[in-house]
Structure formats: C-alpha cells, structure tokens
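Lay summary

Proteins are chains of building blocks that fold into shapes. Our project writes down both the chain and a compact code for its shape. Here are two examples, one after the other.
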Amino acid sequence: MVFSRYENGTDVIERWDRVFEAVAAEPRRQLIVSLLDREPDQSVRLPESAVNPNVPIAPERLERELKHCHLPLLADGGYIEWESDPFVASRGSRFEEVAVVFETLHSFAADVPDQLVLGCQRLERERQFG
C-alpha cells in the first residue's frame, strides 16, 4: 500500500511538472487557449493561433520556434497533435491535463491579481463578463 501511494505520488508529481513546463511559454499558452475555444475535434491554424494579440511576433520566427520547440514539447506530452502541411494543431489524448489549468484560471478571473490580468484579453473578458 505504501509503495503504491509512493508510485502514484511520484507519477502525479511528474505529470504536474510536465503540465507546468507545457504552459511555461506564451506561444504554448496561446495555442492551448485557442484549442479550448474550439470544439474538441477541430484543429486550429498555425502560427496564428499561438500569437498573443497584444505582443505580436514575426510569423516566420514564430513558425520556426513552434516547429522546433513548442509543438514537439506539447506533442511529446500528448497535449496536442500537429501537422506541418497544412500547418495546424489539434487536441491530443492528454489535452485535458493542460486545459484544466486555464479553465480553472478563467473561472476564477475575478480573484487573479490585476498584474496578471491587465493585458491578457481572455482574463480581462472573463472578469468583465464572468
């Protein structure tokens, strides 16, 4: 019993570490939120769906970063699936593990400190319209 709890605890810690690594970069956060806004079986276009509208980045640079860093990390975790032609992403088998972070955050937008809300269109909208 103790060993089983230890094994399960270790697994949970590793999963949370992977989730927080997955959401540690803005393009990955934007992509996850874009996928949340779609039906589960729909894909989103890239690189557009990974851009923060308040802080645009050159599309060529973002596409390179997505293909070589962000998308492989998310795909390796099972959070997304992606294709390069057409350049799109869709939910992976473990998408809910990262989605819950944003669903929870959005549902408590009124409690999030202002410095983490102002400038984030999604949280500002959640706060305004609840």
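And here is the second example, written the same way.
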Amino acid sequence: MAEDLIARIGAALAEVSPSDRRPIYRRLSDLLARELRQGPAGTRLPSERRLARELGISRVTVRRALDELSAEGLVLRRRGARSAAAVRLEKRLSSLTGFSDELRNRGMRPGQRWLSRQVVLPAPSEALALDLAPAEKIARLERVRLADGHPIAIERAAVPLAYLPDPGLVGDSLYAILAEGGTPPVRGAQRIRAGLMSGRDAELLDSRPGAPLLIVERRCFLADGRPVEFTETRYDGESYDFLTELQPQNGTYQSEMA
C-alpha cells in the first residue's frame, strides 16, 4: 500500500545518522530502490506531489530521486502517469519455450490481450518463411503479451491451416494447441534486430514513440523439417534482456593469432 511505503520511507529519512552526508534526493532514491527491489514488478509509486507533501520535502527533490531511479532502470516514467517499478525479464535463446511457460518458470503470471485471430492470405514474408504458395491461407494470431498484467511484447504468429485450421482454438499457448494436434515444433531458428517503436507499438506497450524495440523473427519446424510457425515478436527494449550461453568451439579454445 502507498501509505505503508510512505510511512517506511518517512521513518527511514527521520533516522539519518550524523555521519550520512548524502543529499536528501540520494537518500530518498536509495530508500525507494530498496522498496522496489523487494516489491513486485510493475508496482505503482505514489505521485511526486504526494511524496513531497507526505515526506515534507520539495517536489524538485522527489523528481531528482525518481530521475536517478529511472536512469538505473528501476523505474519507468510516463508523461501524465505515475511512476512504476520497471518490469525486466531475461529470455534464454538456447531453448524452444513458449511465452506462457517461460513466465511461469520465473514465477510471473502470463497473460495476453488479443488483437486478432483470423484466417487470411499470408504476407510475402509469411509465405516465404512457411514455404507456402501466395494463395494458401494461414491462421494469423496477433496479441499483446503481458507479464503480471504489464504489456511487454507484441506478437504476430502465422501457422499453416494444415496445423491450425481454427485460430480461435488458441488460448494462452499456441504450442499447447499444436501439441494436442500432434504437430509440436521440435526446433527453431531466430533472427534478432533492433528497432524503434511506432506510434501503434508505443500505444500497445504503454510506452512512447521512438523507444527501443527488440524484434525477433522465429521459424519453428516439425520433426520432418516442415515449417509449422513463423512469428514476429516486438519486445519492449526497456523490459527484456536476451541471454545465450557461449562455449568453446569443439570444446577447446582457439586463438585467432594461430
């Protein structure tokens, strides 16, 4: 609760050691950082005005403390909205895991906001990725992915109708539906590039135009090599890190100078 947070911050500010020569904004920043690290991601902070009034300090001091937290990536600040604890996730590139399972493995609640589920003709990139003729229709699924209710990615998946004749069957997990139909993907390939949010991206991700994006294109295949899925996911670059494990080639280190 905001009242409890303000009470804890106020008590800590009042118990300043004489040897603590940090400016007030820095002490406030450190105390808020401790609260945010201990609380759930996406937690809303009290407004600048309320923090200043309840703590008996100036709004300039509060704003500077929040600016410090924003620079450290602990707080997301939106014009016209209260600051909130940043949601930051790590995604490993070495495993073929669905979004929902990935979040559950990290103790977070997955969710989505559906934008469309329809049968359509493929875009040229989709037809090429899925080895389809331009006139062969696909199931296209477009949704905003949520982590603990916070939007972090826009996903557009394309699947041949042979494997997903009714896109309305998909709930939380596309992979679960494909597995039920006996066509689970067994391997995949990904391409990652950087981008900037358009106005639509920013609106869907509760961000701002021009904010960083990580754009991932993924092709997944059946055991016999046929492509079963082509997905473009546009991740909020302020919320996602991608991790991969590096190993020496053939188990040994090689020198470029050899």
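What can we say about the second shape? Residues 2-85 form a domain with the Arc Repressor Mutant, subunit A fold (CATH 1.10.10.10).
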